């Protein structure tokens, strides 16, 4: 039987949830996707091996019209299983799809559901979503701990962990880093990369504040900030104010397909992500950290939300206080000063990711949940 995937988040729109949902579709034998409209979607959908039905709106919400069309797709494609790409709010359609014949309903959560769990009204809606689904999945142990209090005891017992996988055929050692270094004029220098949108939550400002400590130990070290975002002007000003502007390189936006070589270019990957807005803006997981490990890089990661699940502290890298530049700088300097230790951590990270973070593993979990 066919799985109906109902999701607001789907390529060609870029983002972590979009990549997660799209990759899981490859793990299902028969699938039809119902999603929102997005620029360039017709050309993208034409190359897919399964049908995609686009709503007329740019944001898919659980309205009566959308629910009615989802029921129609279930009947047209003989779908008896439903996967909600993001539980909140689309999972509110669960009871109607159950009445229409859905045998199994799986509702995925990511990070934004953690604040739903703490807000009156949204909390009650999340409880209804959990009761309507056979399983609510979470991407990290931290997310599970935050969401569980909002669910009924029965829904909590049915929760399962479903994480993104890492494409180790895209992210692997020597996947183009030398070419990136050459293009940027950074050949032979100790290099630390942070690959992420330039936003306060990702902690690039902490890296800049930590850089004087890094330079004191490794004077030629360069910080490579890969990505665009609204925080760039502030970060450039901060680098000048701290006196490290000549040691910080901003690449600007980099297409998703070109990201692996930028990760590979680094000696160390660092992203001291932090929780903001009174706990409502955490790092739910941080797949880019795992991609860095797959590329054989030691990682330095901020202790925010579920980010701790992406590093084995002292084995594949370090979990650090994202609010304190001093320990961040100390850990980075330690890794740059001891290349053999850094390489050993990177190798351990790649082995761990290949063993426990594959898409095949994630697909097996999802198929089990849908077929139970």
UniProtKB/TrEMBL annotation:
Residue intervals of the Glycosyl transferase family domain: 184-352
Organism classification: Bacteria, Bacillati, Actinomycetota, Actinomycetes, Propionibacteriales
InterPro entries: Glyco_trans_1, Glyco_trans_4-like_N, Glycosyltransferase_grp1
Keywords carried by this UniProt record: Glycosyltransferase, Transferase
Annotated protein name in UniProt: Glycosyltransferase family 1 protein
Gene Ontology MF term list: hexosyltransferase activity
Classification via Gene3D superfamilies: Glycogen Phosphorylase B
Recorded superkingdom: Bacteria
Organism: Kribbella pittospori
